[in-house]
Amino acid sequence: MPTVQTYGARKVASDSLPGARKSASETPTSLGVGLEHAKAQTAEVVGGIAGAVARLGAEQFTALEVRARERANDLAQLTSDRQLDDWERLKVHDPEQGVFHTVKGKDAVGMPSTVLADFDKEADRIETGLNAEQRDAFRARRHIRRASLARSLESYSGEQLDAYETAETHAALIGSQQSAIANTVRDPLRISEELARTEAIVNNFADHDGAGPAVRALLLTKARTTIHAGVIDQQLAIGNDKDAQTYFDAVKQQIAPEALPEIERKLESGSTAGNGLRAAELIWQQQGPKGDTDPIQLDHMETAARAQFADDPKTLAATMHYLRERKAGVDASRQDRAESTTGAVWVAASNGASLAQISRLPEFINSPGRLQAQITDYIVARSERAASREAALEGRAAAAESRAYTREQRGQAAKETAGWARYWDLSDPKTLNTTSENALQALRGELGDDHVNRLLTQKRAIDKSETTVRAAAIDDDLFKTTAREAGFDAYSPKTDVEKADLGQLKNMVETAIDLEQQRTGKALTRDQKQAVMRSITDQKVMLNVWGTDPARVAAMVVNPADRKKAYVPIAQVPVAALSEAFNYVRGLTPETQRMPDEALRTIYSDRIQRAYALKLLGGTRAEMEAIMRGEQ
To answer: What is the per-residue DSSP string for 297-318?
Structure first.
């Protein structure tokens, strides 16, 4: 294989080519100067340039360093100022923690120095994070900020102390005034002592406030006027009109001019009232009753007053006012005593006491003759009824006695029926709450025992508390609403007949509610009570009685004769009751067994109507079956 011979290692060395000319002008090299000289000259030039560059860099670095330091100082200033702002806002102005919101009244004493000490601690803490240059600048701002804060704190503290001093001064003056007035009667010397105390309080306040003589005098006059006016009012209130006038004459010069007319008016009125009261007392002693049974001759006493004060109409009016007031008080007291006496006698009578026993009671002995007659009639009638009843039951009574007993029973029933209207009026919770038990007991002769006992039971139920009165009023309103739904004018009955029907119906409803509550063992709710009420008011029967309202609530039909004439129209008899009646009739005869419902309805409608009415009236099953068989 052919080969190419190489030249081998370099045999001849050559100098580097001169650098390219960078200028059109001649250079030392182009003119033949030596290369070394040219190199030296070039190095000198390069060195000069480098020195200039170095000097320029040093100057630029110094400027950058200064700007960086100044910026750091500025930032330190911003941060330190912001930290002081945060501290002041939290310590001084914060609504929950700041002293301007939490430190009040006398607590403001010494508060500025405490807050400034805390300021110094916070400023010292901030300084620890600053360099020497920053601390110097911060201290100048710190002193300015501290001086401003000190002014604000001192101003706030002064405001709080002024307000506290004003409030305490006012309270002290009121206390002094009240002490003087309260001791008007028992310790008159206390009045002058409190006047001196008031003067010292006012002068001390005026000294602190820097008040001038005119303001000081005005404050003293106002404080003294309050005491003098209060003392006069107190004396007039207890009837010491003469002492009040004497006191006023002595202190008139110390009272503010603007207060004089009102005080003088009160003194005139008090003097008139006092003269009238004293005159009325004297006339009453001379011409008034000496005992509870003596008449009160008010006309005679007023005639005496007119003769005494013919030329003084104001005192005359006051005298007659007190005479009439005295009569009203005596009348009320007599009524209370009469009710107490009457109640005690009627309670004894209702408990079965005999006439001989009651006749020995002090209350009976001291009672008016009219009451004694009523009690006697009540006990005698009660004894006669008992004797007649016993004779009739034993079959030993003569026909005349039986008829007398029957008439007595009818009379008692008539009295009870007539009493339902009065019962309706008295059973209103508001009326019952203001009627005493003694007053109710006194109605036994008028209303009978049953009505009075019902009212007493209701009275004692609502007397337990105000809550029971409100509950009874709510139940009463519920009954009236339910009764109105059933066709009764429960809110404004116009006749005694309407009231009697409502009274009887209300008693039936309340009895039914009581029985249901006893059965369940707990109080019924409002809705449950209304359901019971409606179950009674919705049960209506017709009465075939000429001259009366044919539609009556079943619960109100208590007369045996009316019960026999009561019926419910066949169209209003419930389907279930009709089916039960049809089934019963089919069992009577083979003929009725094969009759359809319509035929039974036509033939036996009268019996079905009467039997269902009797069911609503509380009749027994035997009584209803007797009607269905045609036996009644």
So the answer is: -HHHHHHHHHHHTTT-HHHHHH
Whole-model pTM over 0.85: no
Cα dihedral 477, 481, 483, 487, rounded to 10, equals 150
Phi, psi (degrees; rounded to nearest 5) at 182: -65, -25
d(CA 266, CA 110): 50
**Reading across the β-sheet that carries 566-567, which strands appear in turn?**
551-553, 540-543, 566-567
Q: What is the pLDDT of residues 537-596, one digit of tens each?
A: 777 777 765 445 556 676 666 566 677 778 888 887 888 888 888 888 888 888 888 888
Query: From CA 411, how far away is CA 413, in angstroms rounded?
Result: 5
Query: Would you state the structure tokens that stand for residue 457, as one six-digit string?
Result: 């039971």
Instruction: Map out the domains of the chain as residue ranges.
Output: 464-537, 560-628
Locate all alpha helices (DSSP H) within 367-495, ordered by sequence: 369-394, 399-426, 429-433, 437-441, 444-447, 449-462, 466-485
Beta-bridge partner residues of 56: none
Name the residue type at position 46: V
Q: Could you read off the pLDDT of 247-266 as tens digits, one per residue?
A: 889 888 989 999 999 998 98
354 near 379, Cβ under 8 Å? yes
In angstroms, the CA 551 to CA 557 distance is 10
Amino acid (one-letter) located at 61: F
With tokens 């002008």, the residue in question is 25
Please give the Cα distance from 38 to 28 (Å, whole number).
6
Q: Residue 190: which of 238, 148, 231, 130 has the closest Cα?
A: 231
pLDDT in tens, 15-26: 555 555 555 555
Q: How many other CB atoms are found less than 10 A from the CB of residue 141? A: 14
Token pair belonging to 265: 């008016």
Distances (CA, A) of 568 to 210, 508, 573, 628: 98, 20, 7, 14
Q: Nearest CA to 154 among 110, 98, 104?
A: 110
Determine phi and psi for 566, rounding to 5 degrees: -80, 145
At a CB cut-off of 8 Å and minimum separation 6, what does 615 contact?
A: 577, 624
Sign of torsion, CA 20 25 29 30? positive
Report the chain's mean pLDDT, rounded to a whole number: 80
In percent, how much of the chain has pLDDT > 70? Answer: 79
Distance CA 139, CA 126 (A): 10
pLDDT tens per residue, range 22-40: 555 555 555 555 556 656 6
Q: Judge whether 417 and 500 are in contact, CB under 8 Å.
A: yes
DSSP 92: I
